[in-house]
Amino acid sequence: MNINDNWLYLENHTQNLSEAQKAKNWTSLNLPHTWNAEDATDLYPGYRRDASWYQKKINISKIDQNQVYSLYFEGSNVTTKVYVNGKKAGSHIGGYIGFSIDITKFIKEGNNDIFVRVDNSYDIEIIPSQKSDFFIYGGITRDVWLVSKYKNHIENIKITTPEVSSKKASIQIISSIVNPDNAKDLSLTITLKNPKGKKIVSKTIPVSDKTSTITFENIKNPELWDTEKPNLYQLTASLSEKNQIKDSVSEKVGFRWFEFKDHGPFYLNGKRLLIRGTHRHEEQAGVGAAMSNEQHWADMKSIKEMGANFVRLAHYPQDPEVYKACDELGLLVWDELPWCRGGIGNEVWKTNTKNMLAEIINQNYNHPSIIIWSLGNEMNWLPDFPDGDNAEKTNVFLSELNDIAHKLDLTRKTAIRKYYEGSHIVDVFSPSIWSGWYSGSYKSYQKAIDVYKKEYKHFIHAEYGGDSHVGRHSENPVTGENVIKAEGWEEAIVQTKVANIAQIGDWSENYIVDLFDWHLHISENDPMFVGNVQWAFKDFATPLRPEDDIPYMNQKGLTDRNGIPKDAYYVFKSYWAKEPFTYIESHTWTERQGSENTPRIISVFSNCEKVTLSHNGKSLGEKQRNLALYPANGLTWDVNFAKGENVLIAIGKTKEGKTVSDTLKVNYRFNKNDTAVSLQLSSEKLKNGNYLVTAIAVDNNNLRCLDYEASVYFQCLKGGKTLKNQGTPTGSESIRMANGKASIEVIPDGSGNPIEMTALNQSFKGEYLRISVD
Question: Could you give the residue numbers annotated as active site?
Answer without folding.
Answer: 378
